[in-house]
Specification:
The chain is α/β, with parallel strands linked by helices. The protein has a single domain, classed as Rossmann fold. Helix 2 links the parallel strand 2 and strand 3. The longest helix has 29 residues. The relative contact order is 0.15. The mean pLDDT is 95.
Length: 251
């Protein structure tokens, strides 16, 4: 089950953190993984480890997106799987937020998802097959966190786009789904400090932070033929974090 052999997978933001976990699990399932990222050093390193390829891509460059996708299709004949994962989460409280702060987060997290998927979907439509998976979040669609209003807005909007995209492309054999991570132990999360990490563990019923590979496993499921009758849906991977009605509900 979940055999992705001979599938071509494009992972944006695949050089680090959750993106690396996604890339690793897709390759483990048999896919040929292509990483597109601004981090050339780590991107090339991960691509080499996974016997894949690396493309230097700024996902806010719409012309660059089109050229990258077209180049991949020219080289490989197709893109079967898109894991649209690139995202940033700089903390900025609302009263301190500038238009530039807001625009940057929405451009990287939301606009890039829209236009990377647009570039890939036209090829999937021709092939009558495709799997698009967005990395959303629990923050925004389900929960909120002080200082991440712009981030939460971008991740909630991703799910709105996902549902309409799923409807537009269902008849072409293309599914569009999302994974909503909770707190996953990445370099970005570590940068929040030990106090934040320990406090977060205490509010997760499993008392553990997620691993990037946990998200990658969910993406590999959505990418599989076995998930072919699932579209427009999102799965939360958070160790049960959003379940308790109140902190005292955690054992």
């Amino acid at each position: 089950m979940f055999d992705l052999t001979k599938k071509i997978a494009l992972v944006t933001g695949g050089a680090n953190g959750i993106g690396k976990g996604i890339s690793t699990m897709l390759q483990k399932a048999g896919a040929f993984v292509i990483i597109a990222d601004l981090d050339k050093e780590n991107g090339e390193k991960v691509a080499k480890e996974l016997n894949g390829e690396f493309y230097d891509l700024d996902v806010t460059d719409l012309d660059g997106i089109e050229k990258t996708v077209d180049s991949i299709v020219e080289s490989h004949g197709k893109i079967d799987i898109l894991a649209s994962n690139t995202g940033i989460f700089p903390q900025k409280f609302i009263e301190d937020m500038s238009e530039a702060d807001y625009d940057k987060v929405l451009d990287v997290n939301l606009k890039s998802s829209v236009f990377v998927s647009k570039a890939v979907l036209k090829h999937m439509k021709k092939a009558n097959y495709g799997r698009v998976i967005f990395t959303s979040s629990v923050t925004g669609p389900i929960t909120g966190y002080p200082g991440w209003a712009h981030y939460g807005a971008s991740k909630a909007a991703q799910l709105g786009f996902m549902r309409s995209a799923a409807l537009e492309y269902a008849k072409y054999g293309v599914t569009v789904n999302s994974v909503q991570p909770g707190n996953v132990l990445t370099e970005g999360l570590k940068a929040q400090g030990e106090e934040y990490l320990e406090g977060t563990k205490s509010i997760i019923p499993m008392h553990e932070l997620g691993k990037p590979e946990d998200i990658g496993a969910a993406v590999a499921f959505f990418a599989s033929d076995e998930a072919g009758y699932i579209t427009g849906q999102s799965i939360v991977v958070d160790g049960g974090q959003i379940l308790p009605e109140e902190p005292d509900g955690i054992l």
